[in-house]
Amino acid sequence: MNQNQKQTQRGNFILVLVAMVLGVLMGLMFAGNSHRRPSAATPLQGKMDEVMGLVEHEYVDRVNTDSLSERLLAVMLSELDPHSSYLSARETERADELMRGNFEGVGLVLHREGDTTYVGQVLSDGPSAGLGIRPGDLILCVDGDTVSGTGMTADSVVAHLRGPRGTSVEVMILRHTADGIDPTPLRFKIRRGVIDHKTVPLSTMLDDTTGYILLTTFASTSHEEFRHALRQLKSQGMRHLIFDLRGNGGGSLQSAVGIAGDLLPRGSLIVYTQGAHSRRNNVKARFNGLYTEGRVTVMIDESSASASEVVSGALQDNDRATVAGRRSFGKGLVQTEFSLGDGSSVLLTTARYYTPSGRCIQRPYDEGTDEYYRSYVQQLIDDSYADTAAVTDTTPYYTVGGRVVYGGGGITPDIILPYRKDSSFIYYNRLASAGLLNRVAFDHVKHHGGDLQRRYADGDAFIKNFRTDSRLLQEVARRGEKAGIARNERSLKAQQGLMANMMKAYIGQALFGDAVFYRVLLNEDEDLKKVIGY
Q: What is the value of pTM for the model shown?
């Protein structure tokens, strides 16, 4: 492989890296230990207070000590491991919402273009549903404050819209038509409420006996969502469950244990944790699971981390499931949240977790955080050229049935689903990584969203009848050229089906929600088709 190939491949994976960094920083958390307060003062704390006092009272210039202390905390924690981190009060609130699985607001998903805010999606069960607000609407003002075109940050716009349930907020919007923006503003008064964030956006039967459940994150509600989906699929005759954890960066350990327990017999070891200040703690299935007899396949990839690895490792080590896909991220550290007095918090790594066979799948981080993520990118590059995952730790571990499995950084699947190697994907990946497919799709929603919602009564009708206009694909290629991505007719022709399906998914998501987005994606999911065929 020459240097140019390496650079091209690295570029193709950089978006995956960014997503992973954001996804796994939340880490694997003890939900029951959230909001613990820090322990009493220590000699280290006393020394830090002394230094901060000197800086505050003796330094040559005036210093914003609050900002400085936050930066120092972040640096100090990053020296411990890649996943211990400091969260500001706002970041703590967001993290708690993700773990809780709901938030208080208006039920609009925002879409930002520069400093302009659009309605990206109107949640069907949220407070804004039925009021006449449409995807693609430009949000001009919130309670009289202009929020678009003024440089206001996305966080500030969200803060204006969010608020306690039962309170009201007025939004002023401008609406696009096929010919441009209608200059007459529309006003809507929205009564805020509680919005549930579904972590199982899709569960469905793929054929007469094969059920499919997609889990996007592990929140406190995930176990109950999973149980509900499992019961429905069983009642429809499911004898083979495909459990999709691709792209799932983790979350609540408690939810991971509950979900694994629903697929295992009572008494099965799911995971154990251990740290310098905590003894070994074995976590076992407390009851017979809801689905312990039928076949199970778990799908993972390079973005599956922490809680996803707990579940897939437990099912693999207990010989309960076949794991298919690509080697997972390799995060075996558990964080506990400690609240600070100003509403901020520290996510501190307090233990390592081990799969039932004794594997700690944490990738090495002794050379620092930068090298930790650089090695992850290199792993993606190396694995993309191989049909097998390289074994980085040859220590054998044994499943309940005596099969050999390995640790050394991630869960290695039983069935490897290699990356697509067709060079035409390079062009597609560059367009997708630049956000052009999503942008052109959303522009279509801006100008034609009303017509599309009138034409298609619901998501089912959209999936069955909508076809992506070839002119949209040409517009993606045109914008690609403008962004410096050379047009490639061969690649455009080879991947037009994939591009059209991806844009259909984006349009369907804006108009009809996340379930439609994922249902459309299944049409071009070659890895899923292979798993069904095994």
A: 0.88
